[in-house]
Amino acid sequence: MTQQPSQDQALQEYLLRLADSALILGQRLCELCGKAPAVEEEMALMNVALDLVGQARNWYDYAAELEGGQRDADALAYRRDAHEFRNLLLVEQPNGDYAVTMARQFFYDAWHYFTLQALVNAPDERVAGIAAKALKEVTYHLRRSSEWMKRLGDGTEESHQRMEVAVESLWRFTGEMLTADAVEQHLATAGLAPDAEQLAADWQGLVNSVLTEATLSLPPADAWMQQGGKTGRHTEHLGFILAEMQFLQRAYPDAKIW
Amino acid sequence: MTQQPSQDQALQEYLLRLADSALILGQRLCELCGKAPAVEEEMALMNVALDLVGQARNWYDYAAELEGGQRDADALAYRRDAHEFRNLLLVEQPNGDYAVTMARQFFYDAWHYFTLQALVNAPDERVAGIAAKALKEVTYHLRRSSEWMKRLGDGTEESHQRMEVAVESLWRFTGEMLTADAVEQHLATAGLAPDAEQLAADWQGLVNSVLTEATLSLPPADAWMQQGGKTGRHTEHLGFILAEMQFLQRAYPDAKIW
Amino acid sequence: MSPEERAFQEKVDAEIKIEPKNWMPEAYRKTLIRQISQHAHSEVVGMLPEGNWVTRAPTLKRKLQLMAKIQDEAGHGLYLYSAMETLGADRDEEIQKLHEGKAKYSSIFNYPTLNWADMGTVGWLVDGAAIVNQVVLQRTSYGPYSRAMIRICKEESFHQRQGYQILLDLMREGTAEQKAMVQDSINRFWWPSLMMFGPSDEHSPNSQQSMAWKIKRKSNDELRQMFIDQTVPQLEFLGCTAPDPDLKWNAERGHYDFGEIDWNEFYEVLKGNGPCNRERIATRKKAIDEGTWVRQAARAYAVKQQQKQQNAA
Amino acid sequence: MSPEERAFQEKVDAEIKIEPKNWMPEAYRKTLIRQISQHAHSEVVGMLPEGNWVTRAPTLKRKLQLMAKIQDEAGHGLYLYSAMETLGADRDEEIQKLHEGKAKYSSIFNYPTLNWADMGTVGWLVDGAAIVNQVVLQRTSYGPYSRAMIRICKEESFHQRQGYQILLDLMREGTAEQKAMVQDSINRFWWPSLMMFGPSDEHSPNSQQSMAWKIKRKSNDELRQMFIDQTVPQLEFLGCTAPDPDLKWNAERGHYDFGEIDWNEFYEVLKGNGPCNRERIATRKKAIDEGTWVRQAARAYAVKQQQKQQNAA
């Protein structure tokens, strides 16, 4: 029984990681509003972003409950500074060109998909429920971003070149997703987080097969990986994202409703 | 004597206009840190920005005193939202390429120079003093930006073309500087703001001569002019500038020192 | 009138929808292409003033609502471009015209969104004005356009209620600063919304023929009056005012009287001198220009896939 | 040793400065060009982590201080490039090498600045470490470099005190959140600052010759120890801790003992795998590349003006 609170804390922390990553990627996609390469993409990007922010809200709601209700989902999203955010470094990277946007999405979607697949079976009904709903959405996200990897990788010479650059430049942010720290190891044994080895194998398998089909080079397996997002040590980008996203809540702290 | 408070209010409003324009242009120049076309330009841009933010602080200090001291200069700079800002629309426009950066600077410097030249003789010692100090700095700013107008206008074909585009695209924001509203008219009669007609004539004279020397086209005299900055109706850019600039003061409202 | 023309007009008069394969006068086709493409462009350009706040939406709920609204607008753009294509027009060409300043879009989107309450006001007033237009267009004579309108109107009405709710919440439970945002927003959007119905009837050139073809079904001034009559009670319910000292109920007419629109501003915005005309077009042009390589890649990939399938067969 | 070489070495030994026109060994020239260009690049790249916060400085006073500091750094870059040019090197070529990853700059700038307190810590620890190096370099054998160092050191000391004052103010009068920023900042910058002195002496290849030429005057480990000894009391005065459990006063040695540096991290950052290597170089390269047309225009204009003057004469 003495383990119980510590597992709750670990779960709370883990829920914030899931929520923050979804929110920040959703936010990055919001930045693209009106700037996508086609109207169809406007719709699809906003659709994906909408799913992600919705999922973030569900995870925040549960995290807030576990915390004891001092803060609600909006407080978690809008009143924490960068060092308190637990999102993956990958999702805070700038949109770049559409190759970067899509490579970032694909690497994340693949991780997200296998993560949710594990969480669907979590012994915590709430986690399993949110994951099940999210998994349906993310299955589509992954299909879509995989398709774009192939279209751009195996499209024209220019698109191939751009996608090679995108994959190479984002690769260093993928290691963090596949390495479990103590929090995640602890939860994995309780079935509340995916088994790290399995997740890494699944992710690498899928990524290898999609990159290969997309005629793209596979970055070296021993590439140096950046770490830090999950423990609040971010890149310089996150501060600017939050300054914009949180402005109204920060500037009008007395507002009770919006 | 019943006029006195109204003149103080007008002066307060006018000081905010001077301060906000200097601050926001300084902020835009800060965004260029590390991104200028040469190290010499890094130094010069930061130097100009430093002068402008310093001048803004002086004007804010005085405006805060006239207000009665409820707010200090930092509160004026960091705790007002966009609709309370009184800067010219010109200075909040994005940096664009270096032609845009320099055309924006030149149009502003020319206005700034003639404005300060008038304020040096203001019957208010404080205003005259701040203006005198600023005028020395702005004399250099104007010389520098005039030089760049000529270098880029009469440099290469590419630079000429870019400068033509820059001048044309920013022209619509220059009318606001040269049109006095009731506040400025009221102050002008008391010698606390430049005479609008004189200012417009001086500005147009200088701008015409520099553009001509720079082999650049003069935009039509009857071009449509955007208005609103001086009364708080801005372009969509200002909100983003403030979200970034004010983040720390907004996010840590309890901080007494920084 | 040729026999074909007569037959066409008889169908229109009998409220039978014209379908893509039916014969239609060339001028009817052109007018429709112009009108539907303008409408499609408006949906897409209309995403920009909202995109301006979607990254700054103040709560998760409002952010999700705004994102859903923007997604709907992209969807409307797509339906409308499809309806336009049934008339033989090319989407890329029409978009090209937009970027060259040769095609129009609703002028309202040349006004900036300057505070959060604008997300309410745009929903309430701008979508509200659009709906007044569009409700009538549900009965327009061209089938695909009429059907697109029916679907779009339903979603727009939802957006309009949501927009009004934003304002109502702020006015009822907001701080003084928030209430001031709402009034400021209404002050800025009131007149531009009235301008959305176009010039007054005496200055509206194409209206007569469009009425006969039932592309247009009510005059600009009629629609404007309808909008004002339905909007003023909502404005009063909010506890806000309009920036129009002449606005008042006229019991004799059974309508609200209102002040003279600043037609000078209207025509300046139309000419490209609105606060955001340049920015809106520049943003859209940049998106499509910078997306060229993406669309090319997608086409190249599709061709390769097709070839592979053919080779396999 | 040739007679020239002997004469050169005798001057160096006698602490007589070598000046640009004096004969010098080719290896001395090359080593100096490499060292001074690295130093110049470091000043310029070093503006970026501060540029990251200059738009967000929390008060006008701090903003002005930071702007002045950045301006000084650009100035330092310029002096140093000038000193380097006296050795026959070309600034553009050396900058090109930087952008191609062939020239180095201080690795410390590959760490991100993540909170406002970093603007204090960078001044205190990073400039502090730089000064320890530079104070010694004021007596370096090459005249122009030595003189540049004297001027730079003076300004750097000012920056360092200002940086420390930021931290002191936050620790004395700040909120709990602000104090946490300071400690977090020190935790992140402590080890990278110690790494600024380079590899330990046993792994430092070029040191011996540089010592003989008096380009270098103390070993990496000596300098590192000096820095630690002066910094720990300041750290304690702040009321903060270092992320090093082995850090403690050794009365016998009369120095602070400290833990083993993570040389793996050091070499990874050197190889380009630091948190910001790519971003820093990409930013600089973009600035110079996108500035090409500006510099070309300035040159073209200068030529035209010269011609005009000649024609007039």
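Chains D and C do not touch (no CB pair under 8 Å).
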